[in-house]
Amino acid sequence: MATNKSNIILFGESGAGKSSVVNMLSTDEHVADISSGARGCTFESRSFDLNVLGHPMTIWDTAGLDEGDAGRIPKSEAIVLLYKLLRSLSDGVSLLMFVMRAPRIKGSVPQNWKLFQEIICQKKVPIVIVITGLENEENMDGWWWENKGAFQNYDIHPTGFACITASRGKRNRDGRCKFDDEYENSREKVQRLIRSTCLTSPWCVPAAEWFKNIINVTFRPEGYLCGLVKKNVRHEEVQEVAGEALKQLVSICGMSEKEAQDLAAKMRGI
After folding, report:
1. Is residue 162 domain-shared with residue 242, that is, in the same domain?
2. What CATH number did the domain enclosing 165 receive?
3. What's this model's pTM, rounded to 2 decimal places?
4. What is the CA radius of gyration of the chain?
5. pLDDT for residue 5
6. Residue 68: per-residue pLDDT
7. Beta bridge mates, 161
């Protein structure tokens, strides 16, 4: 019987090393473009069919969630692109992989984590963390244990983690690269992390009904709204539903009201 492929979604800020992780897992270490600049280069989700420890998988490299800071793509638009991808995968999602670069947790990290874990994927899909940029650490795994408390303070509890380098470093005179050994070890860690946490029965992302409430109630012309609600529901009650939906974005994800409204507006039509 043919083995179904598992869909693995990589997400995180631009420059975190998502494309480098894809290259690390591929037999062709240059399959995904890597940006050397601050603006990043991944604006649309791209798929890569790979084999991870004997299991066929499709790795999805997604738009950086902070591309708006670089003036290329608004953060809310990047989130919408990822949501559209998750909804389009008829065979479901088996794992979310959050890629971040050491040494510290930026303010957007807990926001993005909670958005995908609690809002979009409703805690139904395992989320693991891959921390890149640790090639100069004497003990890469030690970084996690030293910083675990900071993640817990933000209520971030991954299913698993991998502290790695996604770079081989500069080539030495003998032809080897400075971090070849660390790189190979990192590859094995990410492979084991995926295989040990990946869902055997993928989860299909349902429509986010409360997102639709925000859209239908808050962003449609008022005359159109009247046709969407039951006649015995007061306008104040409809507004209350919309307000509660927006509050979820603000309270759970730590977004500002403006960010939540901007995101909700872009979810229109999904």
Report:
1. no
2. 3.40.50.300
3. 0.77
4. 20
5. 81
6. 47
7. 129
